[in-house]
């Protein structure tokens, strides 16, 4: 007796299962990320102090999430070392190997459009953080998001720190007694939106408080402590004790200015303010050398990046994981920090 040929039937059943059209097939299929998720994290430069705090907070948040939920989270963190070409290669590898989500701290914000288009073609969600692309690039695809803080507000708060200190004790800042605050400005990299906005809004906040200022000098130091120390040394040689206030677009540059002052034996120190409230800056605040900073919530940014990544990788609604503004942006607040308010504002380092 000949047995019926079941091969065509088996092939049909297999095809139906693969296409997910059999009753109950879709409900039985595991959701994306059920066996763990892979998140690629591309940094502009890992030795940037603030970026390093985000990375350590992100790793800590991932370990906590794994322990709480039993979900394996693999973070692959790459360092672009300040080269957009290098970062592009790293992102291409994430795309080609099928990562669930890619998080990008851009070297050059003008490169965002190309990265978005590649991610869209691969169907891999994209989260930019800390370095904000232009809005048009964020809107190129519905699976592109941004996590960060609004740079202009940090500049306003930095200026308010100076204005408040001046109102409280004018003679402590205006050592020449001429009714004018002579200042120098250490800026981040040229053209970076944080540099431009922090520079502009910090001085606007001071003058809006009816404090008269005079700019002695400004120059870029690319967020770098060593470069800032070099610039400040030149200004000390040029202006000496005329420098009453030092504005720095971030804490590393503020600390570089203090390094130069100590090396030159400057006494008393000028009124130096930074932005980010990084751990080294907090130590300087406690020592009474750095006079103010603006807390940039790196643990909060890291948590938002991770929560959004997990939601996107596992097919959950992103809006249930984070608080969006305009459906695309997660903004973390800034807070002013002085030596007196440090312990109230900045959480202790883990």
Automatic annotation (TrEMBL):
Record flagged with keyword Calcium: yes
Domain spans labelled Periplasmic binding protein: 39-316
InterPro entries cross-referenced by the UniProt entry: Bact_Solute-Bind_Prot2, MglB-like_PBP1, Peripla_BP_I, SBP_2_dom
Leader sequence segment: 1-28
Stored PANTHER family: D-GALACTOSE_METHYL-GALACTOSIDE BINDING PERIPLASMIC PROTEIN MGLB, D-XYLOSE-BINDING PERIPLASMIC PROTEIN
This protein's UniProt keywords: Calcium, Metal-binding, Periplasm, Signal, Sugar transport, Transport
UniProt-annotated location(s): Cell envelope
Species this chain originates from: Yanshouia hominis
Subunit relationships: The ABC transporter complex is composed of one ATP-binding protein (MglA), two transmembrane proteins (MglC) and a solute-binding protein (MglB).
Annotated protein name in UniProt: D-galactose/methyl-galactoside binding periplasmic protein MglB
């Amino acid at each position: 007796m000949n047995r019926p040929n079941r091969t065509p039937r088996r092939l049909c059943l297999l095809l139906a299962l693969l296409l997910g059209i059999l009753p109950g097939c879709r409900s039985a299929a595991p959701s994306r990320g059920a066996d763990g998720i892979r998140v690629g994290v591309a940094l502009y430069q890992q030795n940037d102090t603030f970026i390093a705090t985000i990375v350590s907070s992100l790793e800590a948040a991932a370990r906590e999430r794994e322990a709480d939920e039993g979900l394996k989270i693999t973070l692959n963190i790459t360092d672009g070392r300040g080269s957009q070409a290098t970062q592009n290669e790293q992102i291409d590898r994430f795309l080609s190997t099928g990562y669930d989500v890619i998080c990008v701290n851009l070297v050059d914000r003008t490169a965002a459009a190309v990265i978005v288009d590649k991610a869209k073609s691969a169907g891999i969600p994209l989260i930019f953080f800390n370095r904000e692309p232009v809005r048009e690039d964020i809107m190129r695809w519905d699976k592109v998001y941004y996590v960060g803080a609004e740079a202009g507000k940090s500049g306003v708060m930095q200026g308010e720190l100076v204005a408040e200190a001046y109102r409280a004790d004018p003679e402590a800042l205006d050592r020449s007694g001429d009714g004018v605050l002579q200042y120098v400005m250490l800026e981040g990299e040229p053209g970076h939106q944080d540099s431009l906005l922090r520079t502009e809004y910090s001085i606007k906040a001071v003058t809006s408080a009816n404090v008269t200022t005079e700019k002695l000098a400004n120059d870029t130091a690319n967020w770098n402590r060593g470069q800032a120390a070099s610039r400040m040394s030149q200004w000390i040689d040029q202006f000496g004790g005329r420098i009453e206030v030092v504005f720095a677009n971030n804490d590393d540059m503020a600390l570089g200015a203090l390094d130069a002052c100590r090396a030159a034996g400057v006494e008393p120190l000028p009124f130096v303010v930074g932005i980010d409230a990084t751990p080294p800056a907090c130590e300087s605040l406690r020592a009474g050398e750095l006079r103010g900073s603006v807390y940039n919530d790196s643990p909060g940014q890291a948590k938002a990046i991770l929560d959004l990544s997990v939601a996107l990788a596992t097919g959950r609604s992103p809006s249930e994981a984070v608080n969006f503004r305009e459906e695309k942006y997660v903004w973390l607040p800034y807070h002013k920090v002085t030596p007196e308010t440090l312990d109230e504002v900045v959480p202790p380092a883990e």
